[in-house]
Design a protein that fits this description.
23 strands; alpha+beta; outer membrane lipoprotein receptor (LolB), chain A; Metallo-beta-lactamase, Chain A; about 500 residues
């Protein structure tokens, strides 16, 4: 954030911001000169820090996204080629290791990735270049950015803005001519119009180039990336040849959309008025006496609308009263807003309630969803689970339990269907190939899920992962027992 410090300028001190707003070329030229970057062709940045995986926090209310450490971080950038190499030792960044984007603690992994921008590069990849102070100025000049002056927190800034995708990219240049902050907005299925910003501070001279030694990015309120810069080398030769057998490596923790769009719903009758909806992230539809219950509103608006349509086809002329949410990770909560639009009540663990009450108020104007198009919109209704909750109409029953000991998400629920002897779970057991042998190293998620089934004395014939197996087979307790290092259930 901008610091709330009033900078007092006297008439004898030069100011980067002129009395009248200068033209774009003048602003960019002065800023590049002020930073000593007017003749910079390449830079190599080295330091230590971390990057985040958006929407995969252990605690949904944390002030940062799920962390991965970046040790021996080196980014080598060629500004003319619009290309860079990123080398780092990336590993566990949470203490203790927990959260999504892999079961923690995550071991260190050496990464060596080449990125070259072109006309077809995704906007989020372009932002990796724009979120460099020098990169922002170069793109602002190309995009014929608008120039204004603003006073924020007692400081005067020259503000450059140009159209990004789908929102403007805005950069703030301070009185010294340094780029202080760059920001834009991107769409997120849960967070809505989410600000993506980079802030630069603690500038230091590196062989004539002024460069920030502290860089922090946010996506939404939580921090997304932090780098403490130890050294910057200027105009050194770079080798941007991709590593053998590799093209562009995907930078860890970038904004993602889960596992792709769902192809369409197909239903499997589980018996007794229950159905499994496949064709993407799984969901369960239950036909109660006067209403419908759906387990999970996953992925995004499109997937949840498919599930809702299938629920109404399977159970016509009844409202969807409840949607049970397994946990707050975005690929499992990204479709909840479609259920709010249906007037459904979200059932979730108590740890997730405050987060949903906050973020579901956010505007979704960049990519409007079903709920944002409604006027008036139905109110948000949430019922919480502490350790157990039972839904029943006397004939149909759903038991909802808090999953103790999860290191994936603190507010995780598992759903048990007693008549079907089926356990619905998300991310605690994402099954692989059938008949897989016992692993050399047991995934702690698997052993913890098995321990909870035993603790609750659940009679489980079938496990239904929300991440359904590719072959749509019926997953048994024997598979979980093997994955958890047991030879038999």
């Amino acid at each position: 954030m901008f610091r709330n410090t009033l900078v007092l300028l006297t008439l004898v001190l030069p100011s980067f911001v002129a009395a009248q707003t200068p033209d774009l070329n003048t602003v960019v030229d002065k800023s590049l000169k002020a930073m000593g970057a007017d003749n910079v062709k390449t830079i190599v940045i080295s330091g230590e820090g971390w990057d985040g995986c958006v929407g995969q926090n252990y605690d949904p209310n944390a002030d940062h996204w799920r962390k991965f450490s970046n040790k021996n971080y080196v980014r080598s950038i060629d500004f003319e080629a619009r290309a860079w190499r990123l080398e780092r030792l990336r590993g566990e960044g949470e203490v203790p290791g927990r959260g999504g984007c892999n079961a923690g603690p995550v071991p260190d992994q050496q990464q060596n990735q080449i990125t070259t921008l072109n006309a077809n590069s995704p906007f989020n990849t372009q932002m990796e270049f724009i979120l460099l102070p020098e990169g922002f100025l170069k793109v602002a000049l190309e995009k014929n950015a608008s120039v204004t002056t603003q006073k924020l927190n007692g400081k005067t800034y020259t503000v450059l803005a140009f159209m990004g995708d789908p929102a403007p990219v805005v950069g703030y240049i301070n009185e010294m001519g340094y780029v202080d902050r760059v920001e834009t907005k991107i769409n997120n299925d849960v967070m809505g119009d989410m600000v993506w910003s980079a802030e630069y501070s603690n500038w230091k001279d590196f062989s004539g180039l002024k460069f920030p030694t502290h860089i922090v990015q946010h996506q939404g309120p939580p921090a997304f990336f932090e780098l403490n810069v130890a050294d910057v080398k200027v105009n050194v030769p770079l080798d941007l040849t991709p590593p053998p057998g590799r093209g562009r490596g995907a930078p860890g923790g970038g904004p993602g959309r889960g596992r792709g769009e769902a192809p369409g719903p197909i239903s499997e009758d589980l018996g007794g008025g229950f159905w499994l909806v496949t064709g993407g992230y799984g969901a369960v539809v239950a036909d109660f006496k006067d209403y419908i219950v759906v387990v999970e509103g996953p992925q995004n608006d499109m997937r949840s609308l498919q599930i809702i349509a299938e629920a109404k086809r399977l159970v016509p002329n009844k409202p969807i009263r409840y949607v049970i949410n397994t946990h707050a990770h975005f690929d499992h909560s990204g479709g909840l807003r479609a259920f709010i639009a249906e007037g459904a009540t979200i059932i979730t663990h108590k740890d997730n309630k405050a987060f949903y009450e906050k973020v579901f108020k956010n505007p979704h104007s960049l990519v409007p969803d079903t709920l944002s198009k409604m006027n008036p919109a139905p109110p948000l209704k949430i019922e919480t689970v502490d350790e157990k909750k039972v839904l029943t109409d006397g004939e149909h029953t759903i038991d909802i339990y808090h999953l103790e000991g999860s290191t994936h998400a603190m507010g995780t629920l598992i759903v048990y269907l007693p008549k079907q002897k089926a356990l619905v779970e998300a991310d605690e057991f994402n099954v692989g190939a059938a008949n897989a042998p016992a692993p050399a190293v047991v995934n702690p998620y698997h052993s913890n899920l098995l321990a909870n089934v035993e603790r609750l004395k659940l009679d489980v014939d079938r496990i239904i992962p929300i991440h359904l197996p590719n072959d749509n087979r019926k997953v048994t307790m024997a598979e979980l027992s093997t994955a958890a290092g047991r030879t038999k259930p």
